[in-house]
Amino acid sequence: MHTHVEHATARNPFIAFAARWLLTTNHKEIGTLYLWFSFTMFFVAGAMAMVIRAELFQPGLQLVEPNFYNQMVTLHGLIMVFGAVMPAFVGLANWMIPMMIGAPDMALPRINNFSFWVLPFAFTMLLSSLAMEGGAPNFGWTFYAPLSTTYGPPSTDYFVFGVHLMGISSVLGAINIIVTILNLRAPGMKLMQMPLFVWTWLVTAFLLIMAMPVLAGAVTMVLTDRHFGTSFFQAAGGGDPVMFQHIFWFFGHPEVYIMILPGFGIASQVIPTFARKPLFGYRSMVYAVMAIAFLSFVVWGHHMFTTGMPLGAELLFMYTTMAIAIPTGVKVFNWVATLWRGSLTFETPMLFALGFVIMFTIGGFSGLMLALVPADFQYQDTFFVVAHFHYVLYPGAIFGTMAAVYYWLPKWTGNYYDERLGKIHFWAAAIGVNLTFFPMHFAGLAGMPRRVVDYSLQFADFNRISTIGAFILGLTQLLFLYIVIKAIRGGKKATARAWEGAWGLEWTVPSPAPLHTFETPPDLARVREEEAGFGAPAGAGATLR
Amino acid sequence: MSEAPRYYVPHRSHWPIIGSVALFLLAFGAATLIHQSTGKVAASGESGMVIFYAGVAVLAFMMFGWFGTVIRESLQGLVSEQLDRSYRMGMLWFITSEVMFFAAFFGALFYARMVSVPWLAGAGSKLETHLLLWPDFFDTWPLFMTPGGSATQAMKAWGLPFVNTVILVSSSGTITFAHWALRKDRRARLKLWLGVTIALGVTFLALQVTEYLHAFHELGLGLGSGIYGSTFFMLTGFHGGHVTLGVIMLSVMMLRILKGHFTPDNHFAFEATSWYWHFVDVIWVFLFTFVYWF
Amino acid sequence: MSVGRADCAALLISLLLAFPDTGAAVSLDMREGATDMSKRILALHHMSLTVCVVVGIVVFGAMFYSMWAHRRSRRPEPAHFHENTRLEFIWTLVPALILVGMAIPATATLIELEDNSDPDLTVLVTGSQWKWHYQYVEAGFGYYSRSATPRQQIENAAAKGEHYLLEVDRPLVLPTDKKVRILTTSQDVIHSWWVPDFAVKQDAVPGFINEAWTRVAKPGVYRGQCAELCGKDHAFMAIVVEVRPAAEFDRWLARERQRLAAASQEAVAARNKQWTIEELIPQGQQVFIEHCATCHERDGKGQQGRYPALSGSRIVNGRIEDHLNRVMNGKAGTEMQAWAPQLSDVELAAVLTYERNSWSNHTGDVIQPKVVYEAR
Ligand code: HEA
Ligand code: HEA
Ligand code: CUA
Ligand SMILES: [Cu+2]
Question: At C355, phi and psi to the nearest 5?
């Protein structure tokens, strides 16, 4: 079948190009598509963040109408979460998981293409709502009823179906990843020998399969409450607006771990490489990820402490939420122990990974503070929460992704990126992030609510700093774009094992990785022998961990 | 079955992108159609129906094409044992995700029964809710009278619903008989039991329609009859949709069997369908228990 | 501990901004507040922050030490250890113990916080887009409280006042040293009634009533805001509470009830009077600007797709009963709310008259307050 397609397209380069990317079933090409899509969405949502920050530069209404502001906040949150972070991680999974486990491709290559190509349509639909009468969704990314049901703008229905599409894409993507990991490992690779990035993705995919359908259910109920007379979220019919929040957060909290677990995996790949020392506590790392995943299903109520939950429920959710700090702590401590007495160098991926560990932990700390119910009464719905989640998301999810991109770029393109520019990017981004998001803690503590277009005078100083930081941060992302393009076009050539401390199957294939790798499964025993010949320490790489 | 040397990786396929287009048309069309037909909000276009049905058509085209391709590959012996395992695992995880979709609605049902309805009637810390806002409201389930004052009657469990339970549970048995027959390569029996399963599925659907008509016309029970009606119709409705899908899948299996497809040890599509059918059955048992019975 | 972090940040701030208005006034801590509870929550905040800072110092300290001491130029040969069960056990157990230590005071505080029994006074707080209504349940009277920040300040056409966005026309008045139970509910979407100085934040959920309580020792004016996204003007939903000594509060209550009685007498008089169009239109314009223009705009053109234009509207130019009905009762499930409970007969008559004779509408109708009264 493919020969006849190629015949038809060979002549016209544009059609050939379109056909290649539209029809591909190759995990590397699809990974590339995901990554570029995610990057585009990151810029779109980032531009919206710039609108938000510009409006908040000073008290008073300067640039946008209150209603448009709410639309920007909503779309910024939705697109960052569903358009930037999740596809970025799926893209990395596509590129790396088959290579890390010695598989020829993803298990279901056509489904893989399908999962990707649903996304651009879903986001076209979501973004088109900006042009609709009544404007885009304006009820926050959490779309609480009844603001999104009875009071939602007409475009809400397009949002609902857009979320359905995103859900289909994520669930199919997750199924593909799980099946690949469970079924396509090189003969002899036990689960407990898989690289941690693969492990974290296995658990993430499980979370996706469990959580995304619940979101689909939630939006469906929003739709029927809006149009078909159901009363899930209306007291007059025996429902409850707060029921929406329970359903949403049952999805929403696993979702936030979906956005961090692959980041944990990346840090667990990058840090050992540049510490030249095997990952400390491989087993406990794996168990910790599982514990986090399990707990993530029983903590959702911590987003709802002020909704009038009974005391018993508040206490229960407080305890379970606090418990998450234990496995997460295990991970942090293990990373530190990996560094300990290693032989450290600080190439850009390592810088991002270390920045990830430190700043994610800061975000985790504020999360722990939020978990204390009485204190949450003061923090809830203030900029303190905004500070918390940007610390876990920006230096967490985004820094994690950037570490991965720098780490694997030589494998993808065959070229090293410009190390000097990479370092500049890291430092500028680190400064930008802290300048943007640290003052938000103070604004929140002083009493500034979130999702407000205007604020009273005592919060002005914090916001001014945040806005300056945000623009610095925004500009540094342009530098990132430049660095990536530069590396694609050329640069210092990379060997197969691009980093001397890097072990594992993905480093046994040439750089750039040919389109098809491991068409026949690798012989793990031989790989281990070879790695040992290059001086791989016990417990690293494809060697038994 | 011969062990294929390599894991089969198809090179390029136009079906996925066609599928994406189909989903987009479906989604966009559905939203527009809802705007046009319910009139609660300003319609944002006139063409909802056209777009929606275009989506349905493209989707059907895609399904035929895609599954056709897979069937051809299978007949060509490209499906190694490993690939077969991928398909199986994929199907199982897909069913898991479906279970979670139903879980959302069951969650809504339990929340309504155990939390929101008692609260509206003043349970726990919500005494003032009852006293000040809904003084006339009482906690009953099924909810005969909503706080807002709209009345309905409940669906009895031991009439049609019970018959339907018997039907669906037995159909789970008949599909298993069919499967055994297939494994022993007894084609006539296979056709018989599969036919019976399809017939049971269709009967179930017919009875379900009857029940809905009864609900609308005699009980005054609809989607709008408060949370009881909402959960009732959402759960049974989505379940009915899944049964319909299951019946279509079974019928496709029948056609393929009539064409001579499947061998005793290579019949993934048949097994997937039967798993799906069992899943639909299990969901129904939960439905019967919590929606109708208790 | 927290001071160290705070100082650093303060330094950062002053380095960054050479703005004259920055300085001593900037507080980086959570607000102390005016109630026992708010102080205990502040203590809880300090406790958890301290724990986090200490753990942070240990963890980041180890990291930075390692980055410095174990960098390649100092240690060309890495160690190879990668497991230590005892160590891993310890750093599972110790955080667990720390967490238990944090949970105990949090639990104690929470249990007290949720004890809404035996109030001296109950106030029913009802949120609606975008104002609050306060009902003194025992005394049986109540009123609306709306943001009082002038539009010009928001639009940067006038200098912003000291309490920009945190001022209202009629504050909630409470007595000192009384346990006040606060019931919250809503007319439309979810709002959240939050006064930081009381550490009370309770969502106002339509169709349900939530409870919270406070006891304020010190008289004074306390300010807060709605803390749940509730639509367009969520940022402009201010809360002001005036706490007065108990005796003064009782006097205020008596006076308010008297005023209420007088006002209803006045209303009867006003209703029975025959009004002219010249009298009604200016008043109607005022009402319109105050209450309606946020959505329907001063030029009556509304906002495309969200808020219908009243200029040329079929309802406004149609039958008076329909128009009156729409304004008095609103339209359920839209942002158009019922105005009958919020506006007096005269105000309603005036705004209707104004609408029917403004922009492109020239019906010439004059609606008498009496008509409104009869429609109630
Ligand atoms: C990547 C995403 C991510 C991650 C990983 C987390 C992690 C955590 N989050 Fe966060 N959270 C969000 C994303 C995330 N969150 C988002 C998006 C929101 C807002 C949603 C919205 O409303 O829009 C939110 C909101 C949110 C709230 C609700 C706030 C409110 O609205 O009132 C709470 C409350 O409990 C909370 C808690 C936590 C906790 C306890 C963790 C823990 O997992 C953190 C654990 C980590 C550590 C604690 C640090 C490392 C540990 C150690 C070094 C061990 C030793 C430490 C001690 C013993 C102190 N989060
Ligand atoms: C992964 C998720 C993620 C990421 C990466 C970000 C990144 C950023 N976020 Fe986001 N944010 C959320 C998830 C995320 N956010 C969520 C879930 C919410 C809650 C929404 C809700 O309340 O419903 C939120 C809410 C939120 C708010 C609160 C709004 C409010 O409550 O009123 C603010 C305010 O400052 C903000 C700012 C920023 C900024 C400045 C960035 C920056 O880091 C962005 C930097 C990136 C770029 C700028 C793009 C690249 C560059 C260009 C496009 C070129 C043009 C650049 C210039 C003109 C300088 N975010
Ligand atoms: Cu009311 Cu926000
Ligand atoms: Cu959470």
Answer: -65, -35
